[in-house]
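tool=predict chain=A
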Amino acid sequence: MRKFTIGLRHYPYKSPIIYKSYNQSNKVVKIANIELGNFPLLLAPMEDVSDPPFRVLCKRFGADMMYTEFISSEGLIRDARKSVQKLDIYEEERPIGIQIFGANLDSMRRSAEIVEAAKPELLDINYGCPVKKVVCKMAGAGILQDIDLMVKLTDHIVKSTKLPVTVKTRLGWNDDTKFIVEVAERLQDVGIKAISIHGRTRKQMYKGAADWTLIGRIKDNPRMHIPVFGNGDVDSGPKALEMKQKYGVDGIMIGRASIGYPWIFREVKHYLETGEELAPPTVVERVDAAREHLRRSIEWKGEKLGILEMRRHYTNYFRGFPSIKQYRMKLVTSLDANELFDTLDLVQSIYANEEDKVVLIV
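tool=predict ok
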């Protein structure tokens, strides 16, 4: 069993905490000199999801800040094809942060230099990925077992790059190590420019409800001055408004709710601005987006991989379509691009003519 190291100071936080309703002004949120509006929505970095084809759609529908899929620092310094390809950026998706992960000081420093050459707006460090193959190397959320190493590594990277450095992490390794309030302050002290926090521990993976209480405590800490973004379970405008008002976050990072549904950003923004829920996208909008997404995915990854990695999106692209199963099965089993585009055309021709009968929900 690993020994947990922390070495943190303690602060007189008392429970219960009554959270203020922040961000009611038009104050612009900035990461270093990057202006993101008064309550930005960020696309979470997700492996095999937040690639350039998908990020372009999320940007079009309202996301304010993009993040790449996480990139292995070891893969970058060894010039591994898959890792290097993840450095690709479309100009229309900026501003964007490239996210890296690893636990070796020298490898992370060298990969930070490679990232800087790719010219993103910022560099993000992943301290939140919970999957076993990452944490067993003390990378991702694994580093939450050794906070002193986490701070040392962050300090090392901040000093090795001219890019603004941000961090995405979790509440802690497990329920007994939720040190995120103090950890956020220590990371700020070594120079990060923003922090995004997923409201679960590594032990939880993605199970149970996200707990934003400690995220609110970070915002309530008078020593914190960098933007704090909350992440976890935000899948609608009302939910986003609740998190904004209750916990005072500077913005929200959206992950799983965006898969196959890039319109989530548009809908959340509309609700925050008007208090009204926006009508969901039409059949034509959904098919057009899926068609463009597939085309871009094939162009960027090649036909086989581009088709395979699109499959996880189809469920949400066509959620609520009655009797869609037979067409969705074709979309998730065929490896022929022409057949896939023909299927999308067929879906549009069938359902667009009966749109009033389609319950378009997410």
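The longest strand covers residues 96-101. The chain has 15 helices and eleven strands.
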